[in-house]
């Protein structure tokens, strides 16, 4: 495990070194402080002291180290920028005046703010050509409520060195996703707020040594295809996630070719070194085109897809969502007595695009999907769940009676935070016997996806960083959609209960959030 751990019993054996100001050279350093409601008042006071202790040991000034501080919860607040103060006394006064925001934990939003605003020349950061190290120190006590992996990678790519300091309840996977490499030098976990000041003494030494290293990547002749990582007396190349470094130590090749191309496999794409091939479930044959399979004939369900048509999706991405819907339809045995499919779109209001009993063939459904017009406006996911439960799964709109034991599946697709409460209607939908799947893209909120998803939650919600990488979601839906089928050792996943009756096993396996 990465991080520093402090045993209270050992503290008495540690004699803190005398305070020595950093004199190795200037830094542009921004502290990004979590002031969410989980940080209790007395805990925030220890964090305040931690900041002041570190600043007191920095050589600050317009031509020395510049310091900025921002705090965040559900929003981000600039306490002071890199150009505001050049005296430690002024910084200390501003830090002592901070009033915690006491809301959520939007760490990704805070990193975005630091990258786009706090480290700009307008806010006091020195120009990149001066090669002054830019350092962000993120101090948090919990799990982020938004995505941090992508924005942290962007920040690191923009030349910001990120230290992730977790206290008490912090999530180690999130700290690792935020921090610069090597992780063992940039990720720290402190067991309690009581120990953060002791940790601060150790952390000061690390900050003071930052610019003693020459950044060989800045010379511009490293030839790394993706990322150059500076180390003492040299550098090494690193590939982006999903790629493998080649023998020359510089070039990168996609590890999962299937997720990087439009492979066209109807059921499942399997990556092999430098290539890929398509496969079908056991009991089905691959057609001569090498891509399509026999249809899934044994899976009869009532499936309602609830898609987000809010303004944040944007027209071009809404077309991708419609393709996503049609790729699911392609694999289903749609008929009046087989699988029935309904479609609902929502934004600030909810609209049934077509009910379960309107179309009897997959081709008719796909044509209707392509004609769906984008609604725009807000994101009322709770209202959409209510509509799905009260209308879409009613017998009047084509849902088969519960006595027929036809599984009812609801799949909610969203790209952002709901503007209304989802808890009540998500719970009622599941209690009524509907198996719920939640698919999130972009700024979708993990907490809300988990609220919507049926148990086991990890198998019923999925996330993709953006609309262009949604292929794996469709593939994973297809893997187990046929009851009783097995594929590469994956067999039936869960048994659904309807008012005390155990019915046919219906299996959807959806990839959970990447760590």
Helix content: 10-25%
Indicate the CATH topology of the largest domain: Rossmann fold
User: What is the CA-based Rg, rounded?
Assistant: 27 Å
Which sequence of strands runs across the widest sheet? 3-2-1-4-5-6
Instruction: Determine the CATH superfamily of the largest domain.
Output: von Willebrand factor, type A domain
Q: CATH top level of the largest domain?
A: Alpha Beta
How would you characterize this protein structure?
By secondary structure, the chain is α/β, with parallel strands linked by helices. It has 4 domains: 27-208, 3-Layer(aba) Sandwich (Rossmann fold), CATH 3.40.50.410; 222-254, Laminin (Ribbon); 256-295, Ribbon (Laminin), CATH 2.10.25; 302-482, von Willebrand factor, type A domain (Rossmann fold). The chain has 12 helices and 20 strands. It has helices spanning 41-56, 88-96, 107-118, 149-157, 172-178, 196-208, 315-330, 362-370, 381-392, 423-431, 446-452, 471-479, and strands spanning 28-34, 66-72, 76-80, 134-140, 160-167, 187-190, 227-231, 234-238, 243-245, 252-254, 268-272, 275-279, 302-308, 340-346, 350-354, 408-414, 434-441, 461-464, 495-498, 501-505. A 6-stranded mixed beta sheet has the order 3-2-1-4-5-6, with helices on both faces. It has a 6-stranded mixed beta sheet with strand order 15-14-13-16-17-18, with helices on both faces. It is globular and about 75 Å long.
